[in-house]
Write a structure and sequence with these properties.
The protein is α/β, with parallel strands linked by helices. It contains eight helices and six strands.
Length: about 200
């Protein structure tokens, strides 16, 4: 009688599961993993080119993004669009996302970043950008595992899992502190040089 688990028998090959942005979004669903879902209107997942060489990652969705489910809208989105235009790019050339997928609103509770981070890491793995540009302190600190503010690390390429990462200021911060726009532009010029882009400014 042939043993059922004979060493000589090969198991059929299992096809690896290929993840996509769509499958990650489906897995995220109408997320209730932390308390932020109680005050949100929509999950803000990400938008743009799924094969982008450059990925921008912000901290948290703002109110306009919460209403539309699209990252970087409103005044900060308008400024980001101008920054992209100066780089010779549009929103369709890059991929945009945030660390948190829900707008924290007036919530006083500190969200569990690790819950959203796992989905962001999966997004990065699918897009596989050449360069990540973090906008704001929280995104940079969480991805790099550091506590430094943006001012201390901006202008210097960092590394996240083999990907070059440029930390710079969030557009919302630049709207409140326009004196830092020159520094942000210098950061973006380094990104452009690394990608071989020519400025349209």
């Amino acid at each position: 009688m042939q043993p059922s688990n004979s060493v000589g028998m090969r198991r059929p090959a299992v096809e690896p599961v290929v993840e996509t942005l769509e499958s990650i979004r489906a897995d995220l669903g109408e997320c209730t993993r932390c308390g932020l879902f109680r005050g949100r209107n929509q999950v803000v997942f990400g938008a743009g080119n799924p094969n982008a060489r450059l990925m921008f990652i912000g901290d948290v969705p703002l109110s306009e993004e919460d209403q539309e489910g699209i990252p970087f809208l409103g005044a900060s989105g308008d400024l980001l669009n101008k920054m992209l235009q100066a780089m010779g790019l549009t929103r369709n050339d890059v991929y945009l996302s945030n660390l948190l997928k829900c707008c924290p609103g007036d919530s006083q509770k500190k969200p569990d970043m690790s819950l959203c981070l796992s989905f962001l890491e999966r997004q990065i793995a699918v897009v596989r950008p050449d360069i990540i540009c973090t906008l704001g302190a929280v995104a940079a600190q969480t991805l790099l595992g550091i506590t430094s503010g943006v001012g201390g690390i901006r202008g210097q390429f960092q590394h996240y899992k083999g990907i070059r990462l440029m930390p710079t200021f969030h557009p919302t911060f630049l709207l409140r502190h326009p004196e830092h726009k020159r520094q942000a532009w210098q950061d973006l010029q380094q990104v452009m040089a690394a990608l071989g882009l020519e400025s349209r400014r």
